[in-house]
Amino acid sequence: MLVEDYEDTRVALVVELEAAGFAVDDAEDIAGADRALRDNDYDCVVFDRLLPDGDSITYVHRRRREGWATPVLFLTQLDSVGDRVAGFDHGGDDYVVKPCDMAVVTARVQAMCRRAGRARPSVLRHADLEVDCAPEHVEPQVSRSELIEHCWDASTDPMSNVVDQVVKRVRQKLLEPELIHTVRGVGFRLEAHR
Predict the structure, then answer these.
(1) How far apart are CA 91 and CA 68, in angstroms?
(2) So what's the architecture of 2-115 in CATH?
(3) Which pLDDT tens digit goes with each residue over 136-150?
(4) Which residue from 15, 71, 172, 178 could staple onto 112, CB 3.0 to 4.6 Å apart?
């Protein structure tokens, strides 16, 4: 999750993190971040400190008192020693001062996730195809809503046929298209020939 009010920085970071294999949701203020954080479980959160609706360390501090343990990196222009110490004292796991190289932020996010046992799995890429070779868990079947949640952004209409269309295209490209089975009223499952 990335929370940054400056659009150019937000877009650049999303591109950088996605290129490193992360799925990134973003928000421009604390209210938007709070909605997303209460609905989703993220590997880590990158917060700008000064957002339109407040200082994110106040939000993080409050969430830490509630037992929230997701790793947090503060990315900010506030560069004094006192600012940095406050970031750590209020629940931050890392603190990076802007301007900085986006590759540094990506490396810090990867390190935080690794330390928290949430390191990104190996992802195979070929052209525009990505295959996660080490998923966190494998279910015997997956629902359309789960696919939308993990593969598309929050603005995707859950009633659209986007999942069915993509599954159809994947089946057309597979040497064994019958590996993907439709489970009526549920979603899909992968099953090899018996």
Answers:
(1) 10
(2) 3-Layer(aba) Sandwich (3.40)
(3) 555 667 777 777 777
(4) 71
